[in-house]
């Protein structure tokens, strides 16, 4: 071994290299950056001092490194720029290094903080803030400041320019404006150019639309809006173009009808203009009405004329008419009357002469002329001649008939009448023997008018016979001629002009025959021409036609001329009306109807001309108002159209109302926006509006309200932060708690508008009492209490709970605040605990005449944290001083004891010799003990390794169960929710079989969920992590719930179910209601399951005496209750009774078993019964039934120690076999193992929501990375009228909230990538606008502590997956209603 050589002196020591090796190794570690290494030991002397010095250097270096790591963590990870390095014990370069680092941090943080303030102001819309660049700013810091200031300048310039363009376009109506691009570049220039592009496009679009609407107003329907447009401008473009198309279609249809009626003569046409409304529809209806009237009038005239031409004089023109049409109607009706009178008279004379034999009659036809008068005179002349001749013949024949054959016929006659006269005279001369016959025939023909008669003279011959034959022949000829003339005359009278006289005739009869045939030809020609003209005008609509009847004269010629004159007048009038209406339909309002007209046609002419004037006036006024409002931006204009009424008046009033409403609305919006621009946020738009203007009004009002709330919130935050900083500065440097309390009360109480206050601090030397150390407004005689125990009164309760308490509606005389003139009761009291790291240091109580505002409460909540830090510092400093004093005292005592020890050491040296001998003996013994200790240590390490392996295995098992639960519950959630929706069949589109399929899916999923819960419960019990929460349980209510739940199930299976509670059973017991119901539900469910027929009973009674319990503590219990579940089922074999309580075991575990299940239920019930402090006994007989009895104390005293859970081994039919081998105790699981919580599925269906459903219209955010759950929950919520937005992780959820600040509630999944639900909830709660937003945590990883962790992170509620739809909806409605309603008043307690 090499040694270090030094000059030996009495004071020097020699050290070996081995003594220097620890120092060298430590230096190597320091060189490699590990300053945790220390020089472990060194020999006495200078080397020991070197070791101490090196270790002290390492301490200081490690302190500096730790401080650097701490500050880096605070600044980089936590973002706390106020953190600095704490100076260590060193001075000189050590202190300078710390100071340099702090100065460096200050230099870096200061510009960043300034930049953050400016950027924050920019984000809030304040462009007046800048970074102050003093002369000390250099390099990158100055460049950063200039860059940010330049950015703000660009933003301000951009804002001013865009505001100016918006004001010019939106308020002043000056289109085409553009923002100035000077000084802009990059994105700002692009953005400004985009605004200019938008402005120019809007200007081009509006101007193009204005050009088209102006053209339409001027009647030019050929123009269309052709400018490119999108969005609402595109819709406006399409609307205007559609309007033009409709107007053009209207004009075309009206022109077509006018052409058909006025030019082509096609009556009955109608204008078909689809898609029009308003005045254009009214105008279309008016044109169609005019065409209908004209059609009905002309057709009625044509019908009557046709009837006259056909000889039917019974028809008249009855259609309503005016003007020339009325004159034509009267003329035709007069003609029909005259023709009818003529026909009546001729028929009368013919009847009297030819049928009745009344001679001398005359046709009297008044008011006729022309042909009709001549025809009447001829008829009368024929009747006179026939009368004279027949009367003379009658006289002769009368004389002959009277036997006087001397008389002769002397009347002038011609033709056959003359021959008749001669024959008659000859006959008179010769007649004697056949006088009677001739007399008879003469009487029949001449007197009675009976043609066709024959003389029958018997026994005559010769001349008389010939004469008789001649007389008979004459009678025959006359009969045939007169009868045919009568037949043709009757046909003409009946309107039949197709018949003519065809009988042979001569003389006057021949002339009469020709005259009648000529009259029939003329009447037929006249009828054909009138019919043709009537058909062309009335049916074919061919105006301008003329009737041409050749060879007529007199009345027939006048009648033909009248028909032609009527056709000409109607043609000119209708054509002129058609031209004007066509011009109006084409938008030309300069044309007027100038044709002469009378009557209704004149009224129609006047009406159309007035319509044109009104249309022209209306178009000019509407065009003027549209130009002033739409192009020139001059609001308030009104259209003034004088003399209009009806539709045009209403349309004018509508236009004026539109302009007035638009003026009022735009001016109201401009007034409010101008007020906002001036900083006046008190104004709002109150004018009534609809449609998009209503949306604009609501948006502007919402913007003003948001700006007002944001401004108020910023002012409150500024007040809060400034006062926090001020009071914190005031408390710095104080070392006395009383001074701090006095300062706090004097500064704080008036600051938050309080009028009374008390400051309580924790009693020194104890943590159980609070004493009064300060006050404000305290009365000497009736001051506050001087002392409170923790948990006593409101002050003690606030300290015990560690949260603030607010008392509202303070009763009179509860506490009074006095002044020199009055004594009053406060309106509200707030009590706040002062905490430091969850340790209570004091309590602050304040009272005020008015309720504390939210900002005051936030201020007090944050201030008590600062007060806690200050109080803790003062207490720590006080304790440090006490410890320093005590340390000095102990140093003196140690010095005295050191002197005493030196004296004792001398005595010990003498005894060392004796001890050395004993030490040798002890060394041997110690060797043996060391060997034993080594063996024990080896065994201990082996056990520790085994225990660690078990802990790791248990942790892996717990993690596996948690992950398995999460992975199973996640798909189960969407499966159960969607199956529930399908079973409801809200839309009614599923068959009953499909609904049953959905119910089967939901039932199977619920069974799988129960299996998962059973496995988690079993794991809990095995790990010893199942907690019991005893409460007071109403026994009758619980039994009723069980009966309501299982009675329908038993009834469906054909079983009877009853639940009885004996009279001596107490009404309440203290137990964990959830776990007790779980055990009873499992036992009853098994009884129903394994009972094919019979009944199932639940009986609750006091436990009888003499029961053999497995746990001795139950033998001494006096309040045991017996819950018996009795069935008449299949029973349990004796050798299976100890098996059914084992996990995963059943009485029948074969593959062919009849009853399903996992075999976990009774095992869990056994363990829960033990945790509840009771046991389960079973008594069963195979084939007859079973009785399971839960023995439970009426008041929970704690779990039993029995490891078998209370299996009634003593009641088994056969004694248990002894174990052949000793049971190896299983090592217990670690107590901190997290296990899943039990999730109970509620049996009761929530009641139907009464009143307005809070879900209807509510916006709900779903944050979940599983799209299946999002789809399922969205389907449920949308059925109830909710609007759903979703995000796939926490970061997107926060972004969605910032974009949708009207979200009413958040459903938050816990396990998500990037940012889990807890971190997301905490981040949301740090956002002031979402501090009170209801957040419901949803997770399939239902582990122990998850609920508490969710609530601690800021969640409002916790719902495990898979969710029960009805229960979830009930929770959502409750939170939404709570958010809309006011908070309930807190009860007042005494302090």
From TrEMBL:
Domain Response regulatory: 1259-1376
Modification 4-aspartylphosphate occurs at: 1309
Main localization, broad class: membrane
GO cellular component, one term: plasma membrane
PROSITE patterns, alphabetized: HAMP, HIS_KIN, RESPONSE_REGULATORY
Pfam families: GAF_2, HAMP, HAMP_2, HATPase_c, HisKA, Response_reg
EC id: 2.7.13.3
GO molecular function, one term: phosphorelay sensor kinase activity
Stretches assigned to the HAMP domain: 106-160, 200-252, 292-344, 384-436, 476-528, 568-620, 660-712
Record field: catalytic activity: ATP + protein L-histidine = ADP + protein N-phospho-L-histidine
Family annotation (SUPFAM superfamilies): ATPase domain of HSP90 chaperone/DNA topoisomerase II/histidine kinase, CheY-like, GAF domain-like, Homodimeric domain of signal transducing histidine kinase, Methyl-accepting chemotaxis protein (MCP) signaling domain
Entry's localization field: Cell membrane
Alphabetized UniProt keyword annotations: Coiled coil, Kinase, Membrane, Phosphoprotein, Transferase, Transmembrane, Transmembrane helix, Two-component regulatory system
Coiled-coil annotated spans: 686-713, 884-932
Domain Histidine kinase intervals: 963-1196
Record-stated family: In the N-terminal section; belongs to the phytochrome family.
Listed name of the protein: Circadian input-output histidine kinase CikA
